[in-house]
Every structure is written in C-alpha cells, then in structure tokens.
Write a structure and sequence with these properties.
globular, Peroxisomal Thiolase, Chain A, domain 1, single chain, 15 strands, eleven-stranded mixed β-sheet, alpha/beta, 33% helix
C-alpha cells in the first residue's frame, strides 16, 4: 500500500485565522470562547460560543463569489487555500485529475437556512436568493475548493456529525493509499453559531451554561464540566503520496498510518457505555497501522466537556491501552477552541501533525478539580515539551459514529 503524508495545513478557529495564530494561542493555553456577538442571544439560555472574529472572506474570494457561499463554505475555501500554499504543491494540467477534495461538514449552511426561511415567512419566496441551495448544501464546500483550486480528482463530502473532519481525512488517506489520487485536500468545516444552532443544542441540554464566565466553560475531564461549547471554523490538510512529496522536496509534518471507524448501534446522542464503540475504533486505527498501544505517545481526545463523553472516552482508552493508559499523554484542545463540530477533527489532525513536528503537547485548560473517574494524564493547564513519535486523534459523533486517526513521525 502507498504511504500518505501531510504536507500542508490550513486552520481557522475561534483562536484566529491562520496556522501560526492558532498555534501560538494553543501553546499559551488561551481560550477562544466569549459572548455571542453575531446576533442577539439575550433570550437564549446559552449566550456564548466560539466565534471566529478575525476572518475576512475577501482575502480568499472576491465579494461576488463570497455572496454565493454561506460562511462554512467561505471557511473551507480559505483553509484549503492556506493548506495548498503551505504545501507548495502546484495544481496544473498535468496533475489536476490526480488531486482530490474530501471535505465535509456536520450541518452545512444552517445560517443561510435560518436567514432565508425567515425572509420567506416575512415576505415571499421571491426573497430567497437563487444561490440559497448551493450556499447551503454540504458538498459545495468540497465543490468550491475544487472550482477555485482546479483539483479534478475524487470529490467527496463526508457527513458524520462531530466525526466528519476525521472521517474526511481517513477517507482521503484511503483514496491516496489505493491509488485513486496522488494528493487531496481533506478535513472539515462548520459554522452553526446562529440562533437556531445555539437554541437547538441548548434545548438538548448539550451545552455548558456558564454564561457568567465563558472562557472557563469548556473543561474536559474536569469534575465540574457541564457541557460543550459550540464553536466554528475549518481545519484542512493537504495529503500526498509519500514518494511524490519526497521527490518534490516537500516539507512533511507527519505520516498518516492508521484509520479506525466504527458505530455504537446504541443511542441517538449518548456514547455507548464504557466507551465500547470508541475502544473498537481506536483498536482498528492501531491495527491498520501495525502499531502497538504502548508505542503511542499522545492522544488528542474527543474530550467535549460533557459528563458522559469524557468518562466513556477515558474508559475506552483504558480498555485499549491497559497500563499504558496512565503513561500516555491525553489532552482535549476543545478546552481552548470549543467544539467545532464537523470541523473539529480537521483542526485536531492539524494539532496532531504539529505536535509531532514541533515537539509540544498542548494542554487541557480549565482543569481545576480532578474527577476521580477520569484519572489519566490530561496535560493540565500548561503545554509540555516532549519528543512525540506517534499520535492518536479521536472524534465521536451523534448517532454513535466514531473515527480515529493515527499519525507518525517520518524518520
């Protein structure tokens, strides 16, 4: 099977637009969470989120084109631009048919749906933009990346809730591994910080309700966690076949070596008890890579800051890693970014690659009071210098969909 490596990174999160802005904030343990400014949230039970505050679509697409895209598509196009530029790959007539796009979203154009539904109710169907459908449907993130970049290879849009970004990278890994493409944009994008999005998750009792101190609201694995924090952004990587990347002298951040994907067959929103489905997923990622559990140095956990997810993910890690579970470093960067839903796996894959290439393990911030049942090394509050060779990244979604990726340093 062909080897697949990461050569380019594009990041947009509540911590900022651009790779270095994100990495600086993450290593300093900063939170990107704050009061909602995009709309009046005063009547909602949750009035804070992880908004991207510094994004300017005009830096990536012209204004006329931007009006045809809901925000999740704009984020995707921008992050793909960053990943392509970072990789140094040139897409031209000779290779365009060998470059794919595998980029998904959990919910797609919810803000556009909200906006035009309201306009139609107030007036008539004539208030709906002719671009409403293409600005709303999820596959147009991948489609617009393809149109802008010229990538003519496989074009897919996985949709698997909060596991979307991880599934997208895993699927793109397989596309290149089996020879259907030589390179691919891969990852996830999301923008559901709108009234319907916040209200919907609020009435499910899924969100933290710490309106008095939003920056302390996302506290994965901590005893007083009370729900996740809704966030937005995009994380897209450029994947390439190893020999081709090496031949052109590309910088390689990490190699993708394992991919696991399973279903819980249990519940609409709750994870399977004791993390059974998550454990099978992690085992599959290790098995496909031929890696022993004791060889893993760091786990970027799904770590949503909800009571059941954090407990069951911890139990799943213990099931898979045995005694090594207490030696491996585990952290949740959602403590800083919030939960970016379909984009989370993309951002966290970028974090995994940078952890390997830069030798820094990011912290779980807001970790104040330990939970007796969550008793692993969660790298509390401060980043840690470490030589990291192998990283596991987990993403789990509603409906019991699970995805895990394994990354390794290229020697």
């Amino acid at each position: 099977m062909r080897r697949v490596v990461i050569t380019g990174l594009g990041a947009i999160s509540p911590l900022g637009t651009g790779l270095e802005k994100n990495w600086s904030a993450l290593t300093n343990g900063e939170s990107g969470i704050g009061p909602i400014t995009r709309f009046d949230a005063s009547d909602l039970p949750v009035r804070f989120a992880g908004e991207v505050s510094d994004f300017d679509a005009g830096e990536y697409v012209d204004k006329k084109e931007a009006r045809k895209m809901d925000l999740f598509i704009q984020y995707a196009v921008a992050a793909a631009d960053m990943a392509l530029a970072d990789s140094g790959l040139e897409i031209n007539e000779e290779n365009a048919e060998r470059v794919g796009v595998v980029v998904g979203s959990g919910m797609g154009g919810l803000p556009a749906i909200e906006k035009y539904h309201g306009a139609m109710l107030k007036s008539s169907y004539r208030k709906i933009s002719p671009f409403f459908i293409p600005m709303s449907i999820i596959n147009l993130a991948a489609g617009q990346i393809s149109i802008k970049s010229g990538a003519k290879g496989p074009n897919l849009a996985p949709v698997s809730a909060c596991a979307t970004g991880t599934h997208a990278i895993g699927d793109a890994f397989r596309v290149i591994q089996r020879g259907d493409a030589d390179a691919a944009f891969a990852g996830g994008t999301e923008s559901t910080v709108c009234a319907m999005g916040v209200a919907g998750f609020s009435v499910m009792k899924a969100l933290s309700s710490r309106n008095d101190d939003p920056k302390l609201a996302s506290r994965p694995f901590e005893r007083n966690r009370d729900g996740f924090v809704l966030a937005e952004g995009a994380g897209i990587v450029m994947l390439e076949e190893y020999e081709a990347a090496k031949k052109r002298g590309a910088r390689i951040y990490a190699e993708v070596v394992g991919y696991g994907l399973t279903g819980d067959a249990y519940h609409l929103t709750a994870p399977a008890p004791e993390g059974e489905g998550a454990a099978r997923c992690m085992r599959m990622a290790l098995s496909t890579a031929g890696v022993n559990p004791e060889d893993v140095d760091y786990i970027n956990a799904h770590g949503t800051s909800t009571p059941f997810n954090d407990l069951y993910e911890t139990m799943g890690i213990k099931s898979v890693f045995g005694d090594h579970a207490y030696k491996v470093m585990v952290s949740s960067t959602k403590s800083m970014t919030g939960h970016m839903l379909g984009a989370a796996g993309g951002i966290e894959a970028i974090i995994a690659a940078l952890t390997i290439s830069r030798g820094v393990v990011l912290p779980t911030i807001n970790y104040v009071e330990p939970d007796a049942e969550c008793d692993l090394d969660y790298v509390p509050n401060e980043a840690r210098q470490a030589n990291v060779n192998i990283v596991l990244s987990n993403s789990f979604g509603f409906g019991g969909t699970n995805a895990s990726l394994l990354f390794r340093k290229v020697g």
